[in-house]
């Protein structure tokens, strides 16, 4: 029964003020530090009253993963899954480097892959898709010296071809904003954006797969996973 428990997975990106190099459309996903810390405190309280297995994930490998998120989670006895872009490991001052990724890992956090260069995977060639899936995984496993078996889709962008390329990962994370089960291989995360209303967290935790909105979301998700791939050069 535990393997089929209702699961709610929340996705965050950077915490704090976005660096100038961050594109405006990505800045929308950054969360102010006081807001984030209040969110964690609220979650600690709500977890005692929900039947859901609530999980936290963090995309992009921003420096705030180490300076803010990791310590805040550890202080509250919580853990998170951090999705790193392997191609950003050599961008000091902007993203986590190898030593910093290992420091996050040493805080008791898990490391996943976010591809190589944070690209929309439906738009890349077959060769680049291998680099984004298999290649990125190999680099990250060398850094953390353990298996990296979970993948978060950049921009939540995918189709049948992309999902097939990620077949070697144990779990694949989207941003399709849907409650799932702990046994699901594809994890449909709820993605934080600036302006989440005050009741967003309890509303998400109380979302049930049988609601009309969830049924509509399932229909859209199913269509995405079976849509034909764009014809691209190899």
Walk me through what this model shows.
By secondary structure, the chain is of the alpha/beta class. Helix content is 37%, strand content 15%. It has helices at residues 24-27, 33-47, 64-75, 98-106, 126-144, 160-165, 200-205, 212-226; strands spanning 6-12, 53-59, 81-84, 110-113, 150-152, 171-174, 180-181, 186-188, 190-191. The strands form 2 sheets. Strands 1, 2, 3, 4, 7 and 9 form a 6-stranded mixed beta sheet that branches. The protein has a 3-stranded parallel beta sheet with strand order 5-6-8, with no helix packed on it. Helix 3 links the parallel strand 2 (53-59) and strand 3 (81-84). It is globular and about 45 Å long. The termini are far apart. The relative contact order is 0.16.
Question: Short summary of the structure?
Answer:
Helices cover 37% and strands 15% of the residues.
Helix and strand arrangement:
Blueprint: E1 6-12, H1 24-27, H2 33-47, E2 53-59, H3 64-75, E3 81-84, H4 98-106, E4 110-113, H5 126-144, E5 150-152, H6 160-165, E6 171-174, E7 180-181, E8 186-188, E9 190-191, H7 200-205, H8 212-226
Parallel strand pairs: 1-2, 1-9, 2-3, 3-4, 5-6, 6-8
Antiparallel strand pairs: 1-7
């Amino acid at each position: 029964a535990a393997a089929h428990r209702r699961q709610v997975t929340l996705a965050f990106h950077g915490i704090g003020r976005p660096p100038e190099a961050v594109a405006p459309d990505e800045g929308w996903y950054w969360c102010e530090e006081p807001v984030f810390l209040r969110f964690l405190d609220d979650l600690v309280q709500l977890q005692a009253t929900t039947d859901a297995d609530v999980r936290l994930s963090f995309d992009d490998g921003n420096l705030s993963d180490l300076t803010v998120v990791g310590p805040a989670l550890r202080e509250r006895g919580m853990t998170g899954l951090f999705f790193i872009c392997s191609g950003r490991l050599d961008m000091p001052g902007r993203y986590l480097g190898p030593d910093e990724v290992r420091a996050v890992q040493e805080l008791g956090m898990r490391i996943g892959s976010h591809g190589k260069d944070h690209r929309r995977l439906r738009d890349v060639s077959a060769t680049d898709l291998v680099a984004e899936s298999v290649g990125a995984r190999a680099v990250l496993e060398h850094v953390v010296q353990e298996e990296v078996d979970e993948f978060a889709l950049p921009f939540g962008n995918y189709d049948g071809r992309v999902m097939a390329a990620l077949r070697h990962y144990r779990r694949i994370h989207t941003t399709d904003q849907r409650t799932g089960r702990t046994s699901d291989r594809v994890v449909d995360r709820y993605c934080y954006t600036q302006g989440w209303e005050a009741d967003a967290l309890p509303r998400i935790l109380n979302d049930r797969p049988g609601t009309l909105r969830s049924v509509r979301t399932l229909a859209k998700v199913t269509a995405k996973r079976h849509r034909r791939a764009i014809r691209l050069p190899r």
